[in-house]
TrEMBL record:
GO terms for molecular function: heme binding; lactoperoxidase activity; metal ion binding. It comes from Ceratopteris richardii. Binds 2 calcium ions per subunit. Keywords: Calcium, Heme, Iron, Metal-binding, Oxidoreductase, Peroxidase. The keyword Signal does not apply. Pfam families: peroxidase (PF00141). Residues 1-20 are annotated as: Disordered. Belongs to the peroxidase family. This is Plant heme peroxidase family profile domain-containing protein.
């Protein structure tokens, strides 16, 4: 009962539809949308407009296997970082300086 329907009601507002083409499938279609200026956020579209990041968007959109490889790599990197809790760390008021 908790899992979303594979055929969601298009009028329902249960989650952000950042991929109307394949909303219930984890794939690289999001990047194809970005190439058509249909990203969820303006920042997403900016990735395609910027000459420094455009090749990455194109590669992700063209090659689903490459997308999966990069996703696995990114998740691996994220899990390597140890989160500090309590008084072990601090939330900086300005990222360049220690409070």
């Amino acid at each position: 009962m908790r899992c979303p329907s594979p055929h969601p009601d298009p009028k329902a507002v249960k989650y952000a539809r950042n991929d109307p083409g394949t909303p219930m499938k984890f794939d690289n279609n999001y990047y194809r949308n970005v190439m058509h200026m249909k990203g969820l956020l303006k920042l997403d579209n900016a990735l395609y407009l910027d000459s420094r990041t455009k090749p990455y968007v194109q590669k992700m959109a063209e090659d689903n296997n490459y997308f999966f490889e990069q996703f696995v790599e990114a998740m691996s990197i994220l899990t390597e970082h140890y989160v500090l809790t309590g008084d072990e760390g601090e939330i900086r008021k300005h990222c360049q300086w220690v409070n």
